[in-house]
Amino acid sequence: MIDTHAHIHFPQFDEDREEVIKECEEKLDAVITVGCDLEDSKRAIEVANSSKKVYASVGIHPHEARNYSERDYERIVELAQSPKVVALGEMGLDFYRNLSPKERQYEVFHMQVEIAKELDLPVIIHTRNAAKEMADFIKKHFDGVRGVIHCFSGERELLESALDAGLFISYAGIVTYPKNRELRETLKYVPSSRLLIETDSPYLAPQPVRGRRNKPTYVAYTAMTVARELGLSFKDVDRITTVNAKRLFNLPLTGEEEKKRLVYQVGDKLYINLTSKCPCSCKFCFRGTEDYVLGYNLHLKREPIPEEYMYRIKNPGVYSEIVFCGYGEAFERYEALKKVAEWVKKFSKDTPIRVDTCGLGYLITENEKILEELKGLIDSFSISVNASNKEEYLRVVRPKFGERSWDSLVKFIKDAKELGFNVRVTAVDYPGFNRNEFEKFARELGVEYRIRPFKRFKKWEE
């Protein structure tokens, strides 16, 4: 686990800093101690140099912007090139206290963004009482800039602009506070590949230790809340946020973290990733934008043989469900799907098998007998429809088979239900999606349905 935002170089840690760092070294993968002005950033670098697991950022907090100007450009560049510096910041806009004039905040913020472009470093963004202004700034100045919204406090306009720009979203201890239900609600809109956690220690201790001085290892409490809200395990959130932090801050990934996953576990379910090919180009899809999903690299460069999956599954009976769901469409490798499913059922008849599919299996395989062939092997289908009519489907899902896709999809759903499979149709609640019509569509087909939150990976208009 990584605490992506702490201030362990602050005076609050002067008495026991070595002890705190030792605890971090024992329990965490890394800590980033974040600078707030140039002198403070020097102290952050000194502390980072004292431990292999502590890194630093260099930046000017909006509160301190009054003391700096564009004349300080070269001073920041020089500090930022220290070996343990992994980011610029924290920087941004703070119109709550207005300790610096707004004009100077904008000037110093923009200067640091330009340095980030020059040095190819990510930025750590602070914003308070300036969500709209920050959203507008990101739209204008963040083309090609990597970074994170630190201690996100729940503003939807800022969330959308940040995700459109490819930024990460970091949740601090405030997400654990009982009254912050609306902030916790925003978690479901953040793609798993953009999620981070932090402490902002010594401030904002999470609920179980609220009132105490915060410290980096307390980031685990935030992870627990995130896991509970997203229906994930603590282990899942640990993996997801650790990999994301390493990707953003260019920290070394382990061999396991880099590995392209043929199978991957989430909670007590095992997922099988057969291929990266898919006949659809859904407007909301992450394919081509993100390779990492739920902390796993799923973008396969080759198509492994079925035996490679069998070897990795090992004992199918230990999982509550096995799901064919990966980067692409499982029916693109129908024979492999069938062979792996046969193997699973041979060793564990009671382990349910589900296929998550776009429902175009008939067109992909050019075989309308596939459902009959899968009887006794597959227990259920989760079919991603994302529309309630042909026109909407072609516009949003954009299948390569064109006009005939919709009728084939509907036939697949009806046939699967008639043959006794458990069938659920799903949709993403993208901009303009007609929830009522989709629910009506599912009821008319007599199948279950699920509507998933829309997670932004890029501008919807694009």
From TrEMBL:
Cofactor entry: [4Fe-4S] cluster
Superkingdom to which the source organism belongs: Bacteria
InterPro entries with a match to the protein in the record: Aldolase_TIM, DNase_TatD-rel_CS, Metal_Hydrolase, rSAM, rSAM_sf, rSAM_TatD-assoc, TatD-like, TatD/YcfH-like
UniProt-recorded Gene Ontology molecular function terms: DNA nuclease activity; hydrolase activity, acting on ester bonds; iron-sulfur cluster binding; metal ion binding
GO CC annotations on file: cytosol
Pfam families, per the entry: Radical_SAM (PF04055), TatD_DNase (PF01026)
Residue ranges of domain Radical SAM core in the record: 264-462
Keyword list, A-Z: Hydrolase, Iron, Iron-sulfur, Metal-binding, S-adenosyl-L-methionine
Family of the protein in this entry: Belongs to the metallo-dependent hydrolases superfamily. TatD-type hydrolase family.
NCBIfam families in the record: tatD_link_rSAM (TIGR04038), YchF/TatD family DNA exonuclease (TIGR00010)
Protein name: TatD DNase family protein
Organism, as annotated: Balnearium lithotrophicum
Highest classification ranks of the organism: Bacteria, Pseudomonadati, Aquificota, Aquificia, Desulfurobacteriales
